[in-house]
Structures are given as structure tokens and as C-alpha cells.
Design goal:
By secondary structure, the chain is α/β, with parallel strands linked by helices. It has two domains: 123 residues, Rossmann fold (3-Layer(aba) Sandwich), CATH 3.40.50.720; 165 residues, Rossmann fold (3-Layer(aba) Sandwich). It has twelve helices and twelve strands. Strand 9, helix 9 and strand 10 form a beta-alpha-beta unit. Helix 5 crosses helix 6. The longest helix is centred in the last third of the chain and has 21 residues. The mean pLDDT is 96.
């Protein structure tokens, strides 16, 4: 069995070495493709691979069709909108992610962004403290719960909404349940977004929700750029000169927003949520172990395309 690690944005060298060791200790062949120039190079590398590990690399129908022997692909991370699940399912290829491995890194970044924006991006302007403020968490999964725990330790009041959790589960996670997005945004000084990009969520956060937020409120998006209605965001920032927006996933109109609204808008130069040494290693090793477990034991615990 040949297991290919294909990453335009490579894992840390230490992580690569540990992934290689897991694969070879299991008796499989390790292959590595890093910083590839185009999809043709990716297709050539995956042509004889039985398994594939990627990060944010796009496993499109074109790539799947080039991978004649592929049996499993694992996205090292939680989000998986870079995988064409339909194409993979049609070919009988199992798709997995590695939920929870990057969660702490993303949660710490969300907290850092709250402080950074509260302090006017560390400019000489007078800032504010996050202690005593209300944080609304949109989606209370692995990352959302960790954000809530860290924010509570800093003295924030935590509210959360998640359509897949009961009130009791949200309370057990340390937050007050909220039953509508309108209520969450209206009652929160900060909203931290942790929803995936789906047909239901793309463009769902815009003027109507953000304009309901209290004076001086901030939206923190460490999820996906696509969930933001960019025109609506620009409109509310123009009308509400107290509102701020920070993202780990820059909107397409980021240059315009920064030019018009200055330190009220921030975006990382590239997605940084999982860019810690710890998360880098955790996600890569989890991906390798899941592939070995799949081949050795038929384990499909984190299968996405059931």
C-alpha cells in the first residue's frame, strides 16, 4: 500500500518524520509531495496511491479520477469543504477528517483576535478589556467549547447556539443556551463563528445579523470566508462606525474593507488557525493513524461520506 502525503502548505518537518514512521512501521510505503506547482503534479503523484493525506489541498473530481487505486483520503483537520465527497463516493473512496486535533490552536487564535481588536490592533488608541463582556458562540463543537472555556476564564459571560445540541449539552459545556441567531447577535459584545461552509450557511452572516449587535461589538470568524455576506458586512461597517470584524479567512473584499475602515477590520495573511507546531503534528499523526486503522481493522469512525 502506498500512502501519499500531498500538501501545498507542508506539515512541519518533525510532523512529516513522525507520519512517515507511523506508515512505515505499519508496513506501508510512504510518499511525499510538498509545495506542488499545479494540479497536474498532484494528479501524477496520486495516480498510484492507495491512500492520501491532505491539509487544505483541494481533492476535486479531476484529482479523484486520476487516482485509480485510491481507497481512502484523510483531511488533516476538521473542515472538509476541500474534498469532493460526491466524486469520492462515486468511486467508493472513503473520506475522513481528523476532528478535534486543531481545536485548541483555533480557539487560542479566536481569543487572541478578541484582545487584538479590543486594543485597536495595538495602536496607541485607547482600547477596552474583554473581561465582563458577553461572548456569543455560533456552533458549540470542539472549537466553540474551548473558546468558551478560555473566555470564561478571562471573565466573559458565555452564550452559545448549536442546532445539533440540546440545551442541557450547551449548559454542560459552560454556556447559556440561545435559541435564535438574532438573539445571539443582539446580546453579544463578541460573536465567535465556528460553522462549516454548507449550502445552508454560505452567505448567511451579513447585515441583518451584525447590525443587531450592541455598540462596540466585534465579529470573530475563524471558520470559513464563505459564510460571510461580504456586501452586507461592508454595509454594516459603513453604517455602524463602532462595529469591528476580524477573520482568519480574509473576505474577497478585504483590501477595500481595510482601506475604508482601518483598524476596525483585520484578517490574517493566510489561514493561521491550525498553524501551531502542536496542531500541525496532532492532525498529521491522527490522519496517518486513521489510515493504518482503516487498512488493518476496517475502522471508519470518522468517515464523512457514509
Amino acid at each position: 500500500m502506498k500512502i501519499l502525503v500531498a500538501t501545498q502548505k507542508p506539515f512541519a518537518p518533525k510532523a512529516v518524520a513522525m507520519i512517515k514512521d507511523i506508515i512505515e512501521q505499519a508496513g506501508y510505503t510512504f510518499a511525499l509531495l510538498e509545495k506542488y506547482a499545479d494540479v497536474e503534479e498532484f494528479k501524477a503523484a496520486v495516480a498510484d496511491a492507495d491512500a492520501l493525506i491532505v491539509r487544505s489541498d483541494k481533492v476535486t473530481r479531476e484529482v479523484v479520477e486520476a487516482a485509480a487505486q485510491l481507497k481512502i483520503v484523510v483531511r488533516a483537520g476538521a473542515g472538509y469543504d476541500n474534498l469532493d465527497l460526491e466524486a469520492l463516493s462515486e468511486r467508493g473512496v472513503v473520506a475522513m477528517n481528523t476532528p478535534g486535533q486543531n481545536s485548541n490552536a483555533v480557539a487560542e487564535l479566536a481569543i487572541a483576535m478578541m484582545i487584538y481588536m479590543s486594543r485597536a490592533q495595538f495602536t496607541p488608541a485607547t482600547g477596552s478589556e474583554i473581561s465582563g463582556k458577553t461572548l456569543g458562540i455560533q456552533a458549540f463543537g470542539n472549537v466553540g467549547r474551548l473558546v468558551g472555556q478560555k473566555a470564561a476564564a478571562l471573565g466573559m459571560k458565555i452564550k452559545a447556539i448549536d442546532p445539533f445540541l440540546s440545551d442541557e449539552q450547551i449548559v454542560a459545556g459552560g454556556a447559556e443556551p440561545v435559541h435564535s441567531l438574532e438573539e445571539l447577535y443582539a446580546d453579544s459584545d463578541f460573536v465567535s463563528i465556528h460553522i462549516p461552509a454548507t449550502p445552508q450557511t454560505v452567505g448567511s452572516i451579513g447585515y441583518d445579523l451584525i447590525s443587531k449587535m450592541p455598540k462596540g461589538a466585534t465579529v470573530i470568524n475563524t471558520a470559513r470566508a464563505e459564510v460571510i455576506d461580504e456586501a452586507g458586512l461592508a454595509q454594516v461597517l459603513a453604517e455602524r462606525t463602532d462595529i469591528k470584524y476580524a477573520a482568519d479567512v480574509a473576505p474577497g473584499n478585504i483590501s477595500q474593507l481595510q482601506e475604508e475602515f482601518g483598524v476596525r477590520v483585520f484578517a490574517t495573511p493566510k489561514k493561521m488557525g491550525a498553524q501551531t507546531a502542536e496542531a500541525n503534528i496532532n492532525a498529521g499523526l491522527a490522519a496517518a493513524r486513521q489510515i493504518v486503522s482503516f487498512f488493518k481493522e476496517g475502522n471508519t469512525r470518522f468517515q464523512l461520506n457514509k
